[in-house]
Design goal:
The complex is a heterodimer. In chain A, 75% of the residues lie in helices and 0% in strands. By secondary structure, chain A is mainly α. In chain A, α4 runs antiparallel to α5 (107-136) and α4 (84-101) crosses α12. In chain B, strands 1-2 form a two-stranded antiparallel sheet. In chain B, α1 crosses α7 (158-176), α2 (40-58) packs across α10 (200-226) and α7 packs across α8. Classes of the chains: A mainly alpha, B mainly alpha. Chains A and B meet through α5, α6, α12, α14 and α15 of A and α3, α4, α11 and α13 of B.
Chain lengths: 360, 321
Amino acid sequence: MTRPPRWADVVLTPLISLALAFALSALVILAIGESPWLALRTMVTGALGSSYGWGYTLYYATNFIFTGLAVAVAYHASLFNIGGEGQATMGGLGVALVALALPWPHWGLALPAAVVGAALFGAAWALVPAWLQAKRGSHIVITTIMFNFIAAAVLNYVLVNVMRPVGSMDPASARFPEGTRLPRLTDMAAGIGIEWGKATPANITFLIALAACALVWVLIWRTPLGYEIRAFGRSERAARYAGISPVRITVVAMLISGGLAGLMAINNVMGEAGRLVLNHVEGAGFIGIAVALMGRNHPFGILLAALLFGFLYQGGGELALWTSIPRELIVVIQALVILFTGALDNMVRMLIAPLFGRRA
Amino acid sequence: MDYATILQILDSAVRLMVPLLLACLAGLWSERAGVFDIGLEGKMLIAAFASAAAAAAAGQVWIGLAAGIAASLALAGVHGLASITFRGNQLISGVAINFLASGLTVLLGQTWFGLGGRTPALEGAARFGTWHLPGAEALRGIPLIGQFYADVLSGHTPLVYVAMLAVPLTWWVLLRTRFGLRLRAVGENPASVDTAGVSVTRLRWTAVGLAGLLCGIAGAYLATGLSAGFVKEMTAGRGFIALAALIFANWRPWRALGATFLFGLMEAVANRWPELDLGPVTIPSMFMNALPYILTVIILAGFIGRATPPRAGGEPYVKER
């Protein structure tokens, strides 16, 4: 089989996959009797045409950066973590417990504590599948799927029976104290005299997400642990021979992965909602899979892919608002991106290989 | 709790186990041939939608069934293309199929019917009627056994009996025929099958096709037998419970019957008593709903029994040159 050169594999494969996904989605839009061109224009205007649109795009992108990084770190250890949804769900619980534990005087104190809470709960939820995979050989894909459902049930139970304020019918926690309100990007822009993104939920967590990208890059490519994770991911037998403990790497990689997924809750639970509600993750954990695949498991790629999906998400909302195309179109695009980048990648490679005519 | 209540619960368990059983057998065929399938949920969902939409349009439930099977087969084709022909990642392909079904059903449903992703309610010939087994009414007079026969075994939709028949059929074909032997061999050691001059690709495609067929029936049963029409996300994780049942059953047909009955029974009990009162403790409904998943994790951990999946599962087969 001819193989394209490395740069083409890294850059062209995701782009062609995306083009294929968009082309098929355009066919779907045509099939339901709408205009793909109008749909695209509505999405671009709605998501990128104003600072309001950008605010929402960045807010969604923040979620996807965390869940995308979570999938990527596990992937480098050759572990497919489908449990980001459940880990983020539990991360939300960690955030809520921290936020409601004390009458926080200032967000500067509440934020680090909530970061610890979110990461701890997310990591704890990844620990059991990781330990079972490492010690008992149970397939991590199946266990993390099961843990997604269990997390949903736990959250449901906790919200209905434990955290729901007395007299409230709504299955949600009490509102977080005022001192846990994170600064929004719009406030920060106003601080330097720019009017930007009024009434959008994009908040300081976006900057934490950028920092997380940098830290994950350092971790994977510049630390001994990252080297061990990658070595283990490439060949478990070689890693074992080199004295790398499979149990330790599996558990540590999954803890980091789960912690990253849990951190997402800082953005949506603390930064946006200000309380814990049912199903607060809304599928962002699964979008992380598409983001990591599209971004080729590299933090910079993940940042770009998360922005793309943030755009799709916000654009999809606008689409539902202004046209008769339901926002589930985004789920279809997401599915096609996952399909082409993750499962049909050999087909895409075969498509571009003749362009280079190299044999490998 | 009297006998009539027990019969009601059992009857409801039989109804609820059927989609699980069909999907579980679908997974069994696919995975015994070495192709992981976490897209059972998606295939069922799209089949449920297609069958409800076609049955609503044609007014004929059998046309709905055919449409459901066709839709499920189409997604099975995508899975086969990705995981057999292009040797891609089978797990990722399954994830993609689940999202594809989740998005397409609402997108098309909203466009065609404008009911927020639902299809119009089905009635009359657009739904499966119930079949009464011979002599059900005559035997009802016999205490215990006659009542059991009339209330639990008789009076279901045809697809329930199809599902029950699929178990011995699967057992026989998989474990007693040459085709079945080859198919199992492909899931354990595809190179040996290849050496014997039998096509690995063709066997795996057949298995994936059978999985599509069974998921199609499961979805059609959900929308046209169990309920009267399609509702957004109506599979509600059943594809994953079926996967759990498959592990619980250790990839064996008769045990699949037992496992899915157990999970069906749990669902029936949870439906009847949302808050199960056991005297000193009350079990919340969330726990009952999560029980299949918790049990699966315990099984996978090897604390009860041991799960031994097909050895070549999940690995694309590359012919040596």
